[in-house]
Amino acid sequence: MALLEASGLKKSFGGLEAVQGFDFRLEEGEIVSLIGPNGSGKTTIFNLITGMFPASAGRVAFAGRDILGLKPHAITALGVARTFQNQRLFNQMTVLENVLVGHHCRSRAGLVGVTLGLPGARAEKSRVIEESKEMLALFGERLLPRADRLAQSLSYANRRRLEIARALATRPRLLLLDEPAAGMNPTESRELMADILRIRDRGVTVLLIEHDMTVVRGISDRVVALDHGVKIAEGDFATVRRDPHVVEAYLGRRAAHA
Amino acid sequence: MGDILAILPQQLVFGLALGTVYGLVALGYTMVYGVLFMINFAHGEVFMIGAYIGWGVLAVLLDWSVGGLHPLWVLPLMLVPAMLFCGGLGMTLERFAYRPLYARGATRLGPLISAVGASIFLQNAVMLTQGARMKVYMTNFLFPRDWRFDILGVNISVLVIVMIVVSVLLMWALVVLVQRTTLGRSIRAVSEDREMAAVMGINVGRVVGMTFFLGSALGGAAGVLIGLYYTQIDFVMGYSAGLKAFTAAVLGGIGNIKGAMVGGLLLGVIESLAVTFINPAFKDVVTFAVLILTLVFKPEGIFGETLADWKKV
Predict the structure, then answer these.
(1) Which residue segments constitute the domains of chain A, with CATH numbers given?
(2) B85-109 b/e with 16+ CB inside 10 Å = b?
(3) CB A101 to CB B186 under 8 A?
(4) What ipTM did this prediction achieve?
(5) What pTM did the predictor assign?
(6) Which of A52, A100, A101 is the best mutation test for B, with the most CBs of B within 10 A?
C-alpha cells in the first residue's frame, strides 16, 4: 500500500484550473521532488493534501485512509506535516516553544493535570521538552544552543531549519517541504541535503517542492514534473530532466525541439 | 486645593481598585481580539450577567443564614459559579453567534454586528427574567462598613483591598496559563498565525472556544467585584462598563495581555484623578476622551501592534 495516493485530484480557482487531474503514488521511505515552473500547481497540491483548502474533485488517501475533507489539524494528527515556502514561524515564541507547539497534537496531559501539577502531567511535560530538544539536536549545533532565544532572532537559514524541526515535532510519517533550499547559499543547501537524508533515515517519507536542481538531483529517489496543473513527467532525475515536455515547460517549445 | 490634595490618595486607591477590575474585563476583549481579530461587543453583557450571578448567590446565602457570612468562603462561592457560567456563556456566544459567520468567511464586520445583536439579546433576556429594576448587593453583610483601616494616613476598606487582590491573582493565573501551559501556547500560536497553528495539529476551533471561556470567566469575576463595590446592579450596567474596559484594552494595545492590565490600571487612575480634580460628573467624559485621543494619536496603544500590522481574519 502506498503511503500517499492521489487520484484525479483537481482544484480550480474560479476559471483557473490550478491542478487538473493529478495522479500520484508515494511509497513509504521515499524522497520525491515535485518540480515545475512557477504556477504549475505544486504548492496547491500541498495545500490540498494538508486540508488547507478543499479539492474540486478527486481523492487523496494517506496510509489507506481518505483524507480529503478533513480539517488541517486532523490531517496533521494522522501523520502529515509540512513547511511553507515563506517563513511562518511563531516569531514571538522562543525556538524551543515553536517546537513544543508541534508536540501539542501528540500530548495527552489535559489542562486540569497541568494546572494542578499532577505527577503524570509533569512527567509528560519533561518528556515533551526532552523530545523537542532532540528535534533541535537533529540540526547539530545550529538550533539547540539557541533554544531559549526568540525565533525572530535566528538567522535566515536557522529559521528554515527550525521550521523543519517544528514540523517533525508533530511526529509525521510524511513530511512535505515547500522549497526548503530557497534563499540558501550552496554550503547551506548541502547541509540541508544531508539533513533531509537523515530525516528520511529516521523513517519519515519526504515529498519536497524544490527549484534548486542540485538539491533535487542530490537527494530524490524520484522526480515528478508538473506544468499548468498537469503531471508531465515522472521518474529518476536524469530521465525527467531530458524529457522533452519538461524542457519545453522550462525553456519553451523551440528549445525542446532543438 | 488643600482639601483636594487631602482626598487624592484615597481617590487613587479607589482608582487602582477600579482599574484592576477594568483590566480584568479588558482582558476578555483583548484575548478574543488576539485570536479572532474581532471586538466582542457582548462582553460587557457577560460581565453584567456575572454580577447577577454573584448577586443571586449572595441573596440565597443571606436567605439561608443571616449573619455568619465570611467573605473567605462566601466570595469564592460567588466568584466560581459566576466565572463558570460566564465562561460557558462566552463559549456559547462564539459557537452560535460568531463562528457561523467567520467560518463562512464573513468579513470582520459580520461578527461585530452579530456581537452587538448578542449584546441587545442578553440585556433583554436579563431584563425579562430578572426585571428592569436594579438589584441591591448586600455587600454590608459580607464586608461590614467598619472593616476599614489606615495605611499611611489613607483610609481603605477591606473590600477595596479584596478587589485588588482578587483581580491581581486572576491576572497572575492567566499569565501563568498563557505562558506556561500547552493551552496557553496554543492560544499564542493561533493568535500569531492561525493557519500555521492548524497545520501544527492545533484544533483552532477549540482554542478559540477556550479563549472565549477564559476571557468571559474573567469578565464574570469582574462583574461580581463591581457589584460588591457599587452595591447596585441593573441589566444595562454592562454597556458603559464594557465600553470602559474596551477603552482600557485599546489604551494598552488591543490584542496584548499586558496592555489590557496596564490600560485598565491607567484608566482607573485617570478616572480617579478626573473625579478629584475636575468633577465626578465628568468621569465618563474623561474616559472616552482617553479613547478618542488614543485612537487619534496612538491607535496601536501602549504595547500594541500598529494598525499597519493588523492581520486579516
Answers:
(1) 1-79+172-258 (3.40.50.300), 88-169 (no CATH)
(2) bbbebbbebbeebbbebbeeebebe
(3) yes
(4) 0.84
(5) 0.89
(6) A101
